[in-house]
Design brief:
CATH superfamily: Gcn5-related N-acetyltransferase (GNAT)
Largest sheet: 7 strands, mixed
CATH architecture: 3-Layer(aba) Sandwich
Distance between the termini: 20 Å
CATH topology: Aminopeptidase
Shape: globular
CATH class: Alpha Beta
Strand content: 25-35%
Number of helices: 5
Number of strands: 7
Strand order of the largest sheet: 1-2-3-4-5-7-6
Amino acid sequence: MIIFQAQDTSSLRELLNLYIECFDNQQHNINILKNYILQSLKNHCVWLAIENNHAVGALMYIKNLEPDLLPASISQNYDLQRCLYISELMVSTKWRGQKIGINLLTSFIQHIDIKIYTDIFIRVWDKNTPALTLYQNMGFTPLTSIEQTKISPDGKSTFVMKKIYFHRKTTGNNEGISF
């Protein structure tokens, strides 16, 4: 398996397919999703895990954060120009349990320019136990939470999803990580 930072838009189709696979219970506007992924690729804000020429995992992030992207308790207490926000961490269902998420996060963290960036944030659904465990083992700590009303997979009813924001300092290495 190869893990690398994407340098162009050639992975768009692979990322689009991976996103849809990982979030198959959600309604997707393909054009909006395609533009979102394309923008991340153009900004060099994607790390990929490739096996047999297929994306089996990806980490997408945002730099130069806008205050409305994060809860006020974060945006008012951190220098957002020095923060990174992991917007997606996806692993193909067929490849889960093989440390791809760990490897993507580790590669990402090891390559952060700590002279520029001091903090990393990621948000996760409170019912996603594997992700909660992964982030805590990678040195992230819970900071705050929000509730979002989502449409159920049946497309008719709604439910409330609690999402937890996790934080860790960029240390330039993997200090504080436990497996």
